[in-house]
Structures are given as structure tokens and as C-alpha cells.
Amino acid sequence: MSPVASPESVRRHNLSLLLRHLHHSGALSRSEIGGALGMTRSTIGELVADLGGRGLVLAGDPARLGSPGRPSLVVRPNPEGAVAITADIEVNSLSVAVVGLGGQILDLARVAHRPRRLAFEQTVEDILRLIQSARATIPTDCWIAGLGIAVPGVVRRADGLVHFAPNLGWRDVPLGRLVADRIGSGLPVLISNEADLATVAEHTWGAGVGVDHLIYVSSDVGVGGGLVIDGHPLVGATGCAGEVGHVQVNPMGVHCRCGAIGCWETEIGGPALLRRAGNAEKGYQPAAVARVLREAAWGDPVALPAVEEVGRWLGAGLGGLVNAFNPQRVVLGGYLGDMWPLVERIVQAELRVRVMAPALEVVEIKPAQLGAEAALLGAAELALTRVLDEPTLVPVRAAEGGPA
Predict the structure, then answer these.
(1) Exposure of 92 by Cβ count < 10 A (0-12 exposed, 13-18 middle, 19+ buried)?
(2) Nearest to 78 by CA among 97, 51, 98
(3) Of 64-73, 85-94, 354-363, which range is least confident?
(4) Which of 61, 156, 306, 357 counts the most CB atoms within 10 A of its CB?
(5) Could you tell me which of 105, 76, 13 has the C-alpha nearest to residue 379?
(6) Are strands 82-89 and 143-151 parallel, antiparallel or unpaired?
(7) pLDDT of 195 higher than 80
(8) Would the pTM count as exceeding 0.85?
């Protein structure tokens, strides 16, 4: 016989259910909440009062629903009730943000640097400096859930060890321990692959909303990917799931930074586009990629064939992924999303000759919606899960102003 849940455990479960729903859906009337969660009006009122007393939700003006009866109060997540501090380590920049409930970015700082192999000791110092500045912007009564960090490499989530980040030049870097030791505040430090986190963000807030089977592919310098299967992120046994950039597609291709030959990254990554457009000798620059895309849109005789060739390899790689995972949607991030209007016809033609009919019938391809902030939002989701799972971790505020 299964044990009977106590009233207190049921209440904690319902608090979590309600807060998570508001966090993902935004402002809702109590009637809308009741319809979505199957709760009575009185239960919703009690739960909202509890969450409001902890500063996690706010009640606003009544919603006019167009039907007789008393207007329903609107409830929304309070971005300053609980926040995560997030960081995104990229080849060309470091970013740190404060992200509140509801996915609202409250503070953002991005520091650009020239493309280079990053010494991890200096990177930790730079991140900590940005984190301290971000932390100073957080109201004193706001609960900090933790620190989430996105890294373009293979990460062991259990302790934040970066096994391999070829485009940073890192191998076996204990980033989680280094950051936690330096912060010294007891805040949880959670580290994951940047593409996995961007996938979570796009699935929660962006172009992947509403589907249970999703593939995310993004490119800047390298190529990253992420998977959502049956509504849940797929990270694999050791965190390597979604490393689509290092799937071999061209045995006669060029050497990849990972040491292999002909990885997908060497055919569709930003440097590959510049190489085809004759700009490789100048080194990788995001502005150079944007310029090639503009020139291709104008019909430039060098840029357009370069973009089209990348489009063919994009279609070839996506064909294998669609056959393997049967997604409802493919989301293209980074410069691939910007390039999509120029290569849609080519990619679709590749898919038609490579993908099985049942899989091809259901899949659609969309550019990402969250831009450069996707990994930061995904890292926030990683950290905020703590309070979403257990809202009672946040103490009741001294001056209770929550809704009754």
C-alpha cells in the first residue's frame, strides 16, 4: 500500500505547481489558474497568499473576463522575489545577468574580448568581478536561488567539471569548484553546456514553446545542440548528448579543433562560412559573418555561393538528426537563425531527399527567438528550479504584503 500524503506535503506540492505555472505562463487570472491546474478558487487564494507573503508573486487589478460575476484577480510572478545570477562564457565575450522569476532579465553586463584561447584562471577572475557587480544590483529582500553558468563544452553537471571545451582550449577544468571556492557564500553553483541551456530557454520561453520533441542547433564559432524528448531535456549519461557539432559528416573534410576530421562544425560553423567567403585569414569575427550574410542577401557572387554551400551541409546534418530523433520542431540559433531565410529552400530540398516521410511530415524549422540571452535564461532556469520545486525555502517577509 502506498503511503498517504500528508496535508503539508500536498500543500508544498501545490505551491510548487502554482509557482512554476506562473513562472512559465506569466500573469494569469485566478480563473485561468483554476482552469489550468484544476484547483478551487479557495485553494488558489490560500496558495497565492502564501506565495505573496514570501514575495514570490504579486496580485494586480482584477481581470474582466466578459462574463457575469465577480472579476478575477490577476496573479503574476514577482521578478524581484527570487532571482538567479547567471553567466555565459563564450569565445568572444563573457556575460553575467540577474534573472528573476518569470524569466525577466533585471541586470545584464556583457564584456567583449578578442577571440583567443581563454586561460581559465583569468576567466574565473573576470566572471567573479562581473558577478559581484551584478549582485550589488539585487534588492536586499530578494532571495538568490543560486549561480548558473553556461560553458561551450562537455560539462559534468554533478560538480561542474569541464571535461573538454575545444574552442576555449580547456580540458578537465574544475570550474564549479573554482567558482564556488572564490564566491564563498554558500550559493549553489550549477554549470552546464551552453547549447543545452539555450535549448531549455527556447523550449520554455522562445521558438520551442508548445512542442514536446525539439532539436536546437546553434553556431557562432563552434556548433552546439540540444534535445528535448517527451518534454524533457536529454543530456545523456555523461552530459554529452547534443554534441552535434562533432558528428562526422565529411570524411574528406578539414581537421576540427576536437582533433577529428570532417565534423559538422567544420562545415557549418561561423569560421567555415568565412573560409568559403575568402575571409578566413582575418580570423573569426561575428561582424564578419554578419557582413557575409548581408552581402549574400544582395546577391554577391562570392558571399551567396558560400552561404548556399553552408546551407547544403546544414540540411545534410539536420537530415540525420531528424531521422534519429523525429522532432516536431528544429530551432536554429546563433548565426544559423539569421541565415535561415537565405538557405530555407536549400535545406528543405536536402531534407526531402534524406528524411523518412513520416518524420518529414511533422517537422518544422524556425529561427530562435531569444538571441544572445538564451543561454543566460537557461542557466537561470537551472538555478531557479530550486525555488520552483520548493517555494517554502524562501522565508516569509517581515512585512507581509502578499494578497489575501
Answers:
(1) middle
(2) 51
(3) 64-73
(4) 306
(5) 105
(6) parallel
(7) yes
(8) yes
